[in-house]
Every structure is written in C-alpha cells, then in structure tokens.
Amino acid sequence: MNRPRNDTFLRALLRQPTEYTPVWLMRQAGRYLPEYCETRRRAGSFLQLCKSPALACEVTLQPLARYPLDAAILFSDILTVPDAMGLGLYFSEGEGPRFERPLREEWAIRDLAVPDPYDRLRYVMDAVAEIRRALAGSVPLIGFAGSPFTLACYMVEGGSGSDFRHLKTMIYDRPDLAHRILSINAEAVTQYLNAQIEAGAQAVMLFDSWGGCLADAAYREFSLAYMRRVVAGLIREKDGQRIPSIVFTKGGGLWLEAIADCGCDALGLDWTIDIGAARRRVGERVALQGNLDPNVLFASPEAIARETRAVLDSFGPADTGHVFNLGHGISQFTPPEHVTALVNTVHEHSRRLRGN
Amino acid sequence: MNRPRNDTFLRALLRQPTEYTPVWLMRQAGRYLPEYCETRRRAGSFLQLCKSPALACEVTLQPLARYPLDAAILFSDILTVPDAMGLGLYFSEGEGPRFERPLREEWAIRDLAVPDPYDRLRYVMDAVAEIRRALAGSVPLIGFAGSPFTLACYMVEGGSGSDFRHLKTMIYDRPDLAHRILSINAEAVTQYLNAQIEAGAQAVMLFDSWGGCLADAAYREFSLAYMRRVVAGLIREKDGQRIPSIVFTKGGGLWLEAIADCGCDALGLDWTIDIGAARRRVGERVALQGNLDPNVLFASPEAIARETRAVLDSFGPADTGHVFNLGHGISQFTPPEHVTALVNTVHEHSRRLRGN
C-alpha cells in the first residue's frame, strides 16, 4: 500500500476534500534548526550532506519531529543535476554555489549530455528510498528538481548572479544555444524526477527560482515551455496512486494562467500575490500552494497567527485545493519556535473555516 | 518660456500626440560611460559627485552629448533624503550604500523629522538650477526621489538587504512605528520634489525600487498609500506648464491598476510585463514608461534593434502615451555604443509605426 496514513497533502493537491489545510515549508530541513546545523557539521560540508543518503534522511526527518507537518521533502539541492553533468559544483563560503566549468563555449554546449540518474545521481535515489522507509507510511515524501531555465542560470553564469547577463545575452544573441541547453536540462530533469518517483517520491515539485527575471516573451519561450515538457514526461501514476506535480516560478505572478495550463496539478505562489486573487484567476484548474511571506516568521507568534489566518481567509472556505506554505524558503534566521505558531494556526483555523 | 524645444517626452507623459516615441534611460548618466568614470574620479567619491552641483550637472549632460535622448535626469541618489535626516550615509566599496545610524529604536523613530529641502538638500536644488541653465531649453529635466517605502528599507536595514527583515518585522509587529517613518518620509519626499520643481524640474519620478518585495496587502498599505500621498501633494503646474509625475514600482506588475489610480500621470514598467498587456490593463488612465530588459543591451546591435521594435510593436500604433525606457537602470557593464542602436531604433521605428 503506497498511500500514507496522513495523505491530506496529496488529496489537497488533487483537489479532493480534506478535513483541514495541509502545510509544509520550503527548505523546512535547514539552517534555522540547530539539529540540522549539528548534522551538517558532522557531514563536513553541505555537498557531503546531500551526497550521504543516511544523513540526508536524518535532516529530512528533523522538522517532522518538531512540527506536525503534512509532508516531508527530500533533502537535496537543485544543482545535483548540473553537477552530474560534469560542471564541477562547489560551495564557496559566503558566495553560494559555484561551478568550476561554466557553460559558455559552443563546443561545451554541444557536448552537454543528459546524465543517467541511476549512475551519478544514485545517491539521490538511495536517499529517497531510505527516507520512505524511515517515514514508514506516516506522511508523503516530495521529490524535486530545479527548472530547466533555473539550472541553466547557474550553469551559464557559473554561480548565482543578480542579472544573469551571460545567459540573457545568449538568449538574445544565440537562442539556438540556449535552446540546446534547455532541451538537455528538460530531458535530464524529467529522467531525474521519474527516477525519484520510482524510488518512492509521492509528489514532485519543480523550482523555477529565476524564471521571474525574464521578460514576458522570454519567460514563455525559455522557462515555461521547458517546464511544460518536463511535466508532460512525468510518470503520472505509481502503484495505483497518482503522483501530483507542483510548478513554482518565484516572481511568476503575472503568468499564473499560463503556468496553470502547463499540465501541473498545483501552482506554487510566492508571497507577492493575494492567494484569493490567484484562485480567481486560475479557477478550478489547479491547486494552489503558498503563500505567506517568510519574513512574517520574524514577528511575534500573535502576528504570525494573524497573517497566517489572513492567507487562509483569502483562499476562502473551500475544503480542498490549498496546500499552505511560505512564498519562499524559510530564512536561516527564523526562530524555530515561531514555526509552531504557523503550523498550529494553519491546522486549527482551516478546520474552523470548514466548520469542523 | 518654460517649454523645452524638444518637449516630446512631456507630451507623451500627458498623452498628447507626438511625432515619435521619446526615449531616455534610467541611470543614463552612469558607470557604463567612461566620461562619467573620469568625472567621478575627479570628484573623489560618488557622494561628493552628488553634492557638487557643477559636477552633477556635468555628468547629467554626458549621455545627451552621446545620444539623441529626449530627456535629462538629475544626477543624484535617492538616499540624499535620509542622509539629510541625519542617518549618516556612506558608501563602502562593494557593499553599496550604508547608514551609520539605522533606524531601529523607538526613540529614534519618534525623533525623525522632515528635513528642510532648502537647507541640507540645497546642493540638489542648486544642481537642478545649474542643469536647467546648461540644458538651455533643449530637452526637459526630470527630478526624482525614492518612494517612502524604499527609503524606509534603507533607513531601517541600514543598507541594501535581500529580505528587508528588520523593516518587515516592524511592519508585522509594530505597524505604528512603520507608519510613523513612512509618514515622515512621504512629507519629506513631497517637499523635496516640490523644491526640485521650484528649482526647475519639469517632470518628477518616484522610484519604488523595493515595494515589489512586499506581500499584496502590505504593498497597498505600506508603499502605494504613501506614494499616493506624495503625488497628491505635488505642485501640478509651474509657469503655466503641467508637471507630470511618473511612479515606478520595480516588480509591481501585479498592482498596475492600483498604481494607475494613485494620481500619477505615468506608470513605470519593469521588463517582466508585456507592455501591450499593461496598456490593456490600465487603459487610457496613464501613460506608460518602459520596458526593455536592460540585459538586451549586452546582445548585438541587431538583437537590440529587434527587441526594441518588439516593445514598440507591443505597445501598438498609438501616437502618444509611451515613453521608451529600460525596465531598470542601465548596467555598468553595457557597451556604450550599444545604446546608439536602442535610441535610433526607438526614434526610427516609432516614426514608421505612426506612418511618418
């Protein structure tokens, strides 16, 4: 039996009725938790933590031990895929992720190939399987990947940039090369997510962290089109259970209708859009995930409860189609005890809205 | 006579017919120009450059000597206002602007006062007057200020941050203190812009660089409401000429209708929204300014011309209501000769669209 005991999250994504609104937090296994920092210290580095299935499993479960969250998310990094393509991922203190060999030369782009997820990404599948065993049917496990465009940002820039000018120059001057990278990325991400599903992921999410930096036409052609391709290639059912997919473009509020038509089951929302307005725009096509400003978690528990209720009230009294989350990953500076106020408010207030 | 010989820019803002689409570039007097770097070296520092009316005038005119731009913009910085409030502005290499005394304590917030624009900001008015004399009636001069919220971001954070968590914590925990800062800022910005108008500015622009980081309800309450207050307090006519106002929230694409109703004459657009879609949303209420992705300027002149035409085509064949600009300030890494391709294409293609 593949269905977890608490399947509220999966039902909400598939727009089936739930007793309350499920909640999880982007980057819920992260630096705001002292136990995470302790495990990371033991691992030696962030990358070694990602690459050890036992330690990745350990940190994945940490937030579930503290809070009654309705889903676990694989602890990993979106850059595992370009790393497996041979670009040489490393993390330099204070600068974030970098690649030893950024993708700028035409010959290197021609040579780029889809990595076998069962070869150089085996450690991710081992982590998925180990986490599933450890969860023991309690809550569902989410797998994830970066969007083809977001991966290309890091691959071409060589790290995180603020304007992505190398990739954008390529988009405007040599769109053929940009499309070549994005096609490879789309195929790589599809195979990678399908391998996660085969290993036990019960829902998958595409993180398009940087698509929102594109001009309207460029977003549609260079980010959304490739996410559509990934979603179309995903395994839709495993062991008789549907595997829902979530697509999240940070800063994508202008394109909600278009994203909602990409074939995904749910739309991730950042905090800049009112979730009720988003729901009116996309109608019943997809579920919505989001969208509290992560900075609300720095305020008092009373303010956190008030702002959390405001998101639930704006979504309205429907008994499905909403997965509560932050509008972006939780900040490393968040006081861990503040998360309790959020999670409890989501559960209590959403039951109240349903008249339960 | 207050009307410049080339008043295309002013007429487009007021939605009067023009023979072609006027163009200027945010940060057009800036580091991408070698002559700017030379003047800045002579000034000693960025702040001394801002504070010297003669040198500010010199750099304001530099881009006009190179390109047939349709407007000049005062060379200054949005942080002159909090500097005049006594927060101690300084620039540290590689880190951007910082304040010696960030505004965090309740007593300091209570003590905050509106600075007299004719006292500690006199150098700005002197620069405006000197630039007007130097322009000698050729093209209009734009004055500007940061939005009350954007100034508050720097004032409370103490510099540029990525998440603005101190100000956001105040917004959620102590909205009374945030409103106090924003009220003072709104009054200071109103007086500051009116003094610029009295000194000779022929249009004014509010830069809301960071409003787009706010949640929907918070944007309306903590950024837009105060820009509305500023716009309502502006001098609307000087020497028989209407003084148009432009409001620009970067990342504000979700709020266009609301911004268009704030009383301004024109809306600045960043590059993420299709300008034709923006026009359909706001109708005939306001003119639009924008919105080419500044990164297009890294591509070849052919690609720059193609993308520039695409913006003009998307706006459509109307003979007014569009001021061409970038969707954000020009990058310091832009090759200066690429700007020529943009400016010429705007003038030529917009004449063609009008059948001239």
What does this structure look like?
The structure is a homodimer of 356-residue chains. The first copy, chain A, is an alpha/beta fold and 356 residues long. Helix content of chain A is 48%, strand content 13%. Chain A has 15 helices and eleven strands. Chain A has helices at residues 8-13, 34-43, 46-51, 53-66, 80-87, 106-111, 122-135, 148-157, 165-173, 175-199, 216-232, 256-260, 275-282, 301-315, 336-353, and strands at 72-73, 89-92, 96-99, 141-146, 203-208, 237-238, 241-242, 245-249, 266-268, 287-292, 322-326. A seven-stranded parallel beta sheet of chain A has the order 1-4-5-8-9-10-11. Chain A is globular. Chain A starts with 7 loop residues before the first helix and ends with a helix. The relative contact order of chain A is 0.14. The mean pLDDT of chain A is 96. Chain A binds chain B through residues 163-165, 168-169, 172-173, 212-219, 251, 253-254, 271-274, 277, 293-296, 298-300, 303-304, 307, 310, 327, 331, 333, and chain B through 163-165, 168-169, 172-173, 212-219, 251, 253-254, 271-274, 277, 293-296, 298-300, 303-304, 307, 310, 327, 331, 333.
Q: Count every helix of chain A, treating DSSP H or I runs of 4 or more residues as helices.
A: 15
Most residues in contact, chain pair and counts: A-B, 37 and 37 residues
Describe the main β-sheet of chain A briefly.
7 strands, parallel
Helix content of chain A: 40-55%
How large is the radius of gyration of chain A?
19 Å
Give the overall shape of chain A: globular
The residue ranges of chain A in which pLDDT falls below 50 over 5 or more consecutive positions are none
The neighbouring-strand order within the major sheet of chain A is 1-4-5-8-9-10-11
